Amino acid sequence: MTEKEDVLLLKYDDVSFTYRGGDKPSVQNIDLSIVEGRCVLLCGKSGCGKTSLLRICNGLVPNFYDGHVTGDILYRDKSLLGMSISDIVGIAGTVFQDPKTQFFTTDTTSEVAFGVENLAVAAKELGRIVGNAFRTMKIERLRDRSLFALSGGEKQKVAIASIYAMNPAVYLFDEPSSNLDHDAIDELARIIGLLKSKGKTVIVAEHRLYYLKDIVDEIYYLDDGLVTRHFSVEEFLSMRTEVRQSLGLRTMTLAEESPRVQLTTKGKECLCLEEVTVFYGKRQVLEGIDLRAEKGECIGIVGKNGVGKSLFVRTLTGLHGDSRGTFMVNGRAAGRKERLKQAYLVMQDVGYQLFADSVEEECRFGLRGVSDEEVANVLRRLRLYKHREKHPNILSGGQKQRLAVAVSDISKKNVLVFDEPTSGQDYESMLLVSGLIEGLRKKGKLIFVVTHDYEFICKTCTRIVHIDDGTVKDDFILDENVAGQRKLQAIFNIPFEKRFD
């Protein structure tokens, strides 16, 4: 049996692009040749140009994102830059980092059908295609649901299904795992493997790398808009840990990670919840939540997508009011208004809480008595100082996330809640956020972190609250006790390969 001959599908030919108003190219002098049926990983630090490369391929550059582009990108020797968006639709489909930015309808079934309908597919065939997309993605339970009622991870799955239904030749994934739990990431890996088996070409821009190690065919590393390294899979997997970390890259094997024993600076009880039940519309989501937390703790809120983690912290901070039970802050009963005064939430979708015209002004927005020195110091710590005069909307997803974290530091609230603060963050940025949270914790702040990021948990959290089946299933300390560490591994389905001394 002869091997299938490699067919060149995509070619970036000396491509450079500068966004309108940008002071330098987002990507420059890019030369890439991508073979049909391969899975290609684009990696690098936040803001290195990965997303821009995808936008050039799917036609958003320059048809939507205006700027100056030179060079060309060829699909089967035809220029994509010369095509309209309607021509590119059948070639490249994209799953964005923020899935809601690609939704056009209000319910899941209509959303999966939307793109196919615009291709003028007959009604009977449309129903078959949509049903197949839901089944293949294994999200039948999400049919006919409001998109506004879905968790971030569930929205991501619907976005993937909507692209799958359109059956493009090239699949572009921009940080597809950023809002997914460990089971959903396993499903994502299965889906990418399925696409490869069907001969599809997949390009993934990603920070989380471990789930791709058995799928990816080649890896390109970007640095400040340039492709500076090209790895084979064997070269990439054999890279020494210190080299990988110096490049700002995440681990390739979660089993290598174990919780770092935190020195907990605990104070008096800061927050107490008793028999708290939370509703969303007519649906009861959480019941019987009992929780006591002290100043100086960093509590990781973990659990699968859709179990109510984000709703729980929104209730805790007073942003969601449909609940009953007892809330106590600093020993006193605390209604919604009091909890809003005491707590600050960095949302999973930080676009909802960025309002100012510059990064610098965002750090002062709605706050009093904030000095220039405070702003400068926190922006330097989070590698945002050089972007201080830019509008927040032109930052990368990871940079926006760090900006919201910076504002939480400046807010001086006693209870700080972070909902997926490392979504879209490279290794260095994750360490920066972890370090900032550790500093706040040592100042006596009470920290809650909703996260699927096992690496981040290991480096940051002192305690884990596991939500499942509508209530708190586990609540344990992360310290030198092996039992707690193994509980965490079990929650994330990580084999007990590592011996603990």
Topology:
Elements: E1 8-19, E2 27-35, E3 39-44, H1 50-58, H2 60-63, E4 67-75, E5 78-79, H3 85-88, E6 92-95, H4 108-117, H5 123-136, H6 152-166, E7 170-174, H7 182-197, E8 201-205, E9 218-223, E10 226-232, H8 233-237, H9 241-246, E11 269-280, E12 283-294, E13 298-302, H10 309-316, E14 323-329, E15 332-333, H11 336-342, E16 343-346, H12 359-362, H13 372-381, H14 397-411, E17 415-419, H15 427-442, E18 446-450, H16 454-460, E19 463-468, E20 471-477, H17 482-491
Parallel strand pairs: 3-8, 3-9, 6-7, 7-8, 13-18, 13-19, 16-17, 17-18
Antiparallel strand pairs: 1-2, 1-4, 4-5, 9-10, 11-12, 11-14, 14-15, 19-20
Task: Explain what this protein looks like in three dimensions.
By secondary structure, this protein is an alpha/beta fold. Helices cover 32% and strands 26% of the residues. The chain has a 6-stranded mixed β-sheet, with helices on both faces. A 6-stranded mixed β-sheet has the order 16-17-18-13-19-20, with helices on both faces. A 4-stranded antiparallel β-sheet has the order 2-1-4-5. Strand 17, helix 15 (427-442) and strand 18 form a beta-alpha-beta unit. Helix 4 crosses helix 5, helix 5 (123-136) crosses helix 6 and helix 14 runs parallel beside helix 15 (427-442). The protein starts with 7 loop residues before the first strand and ends in a 10-residue tail after the last helix.
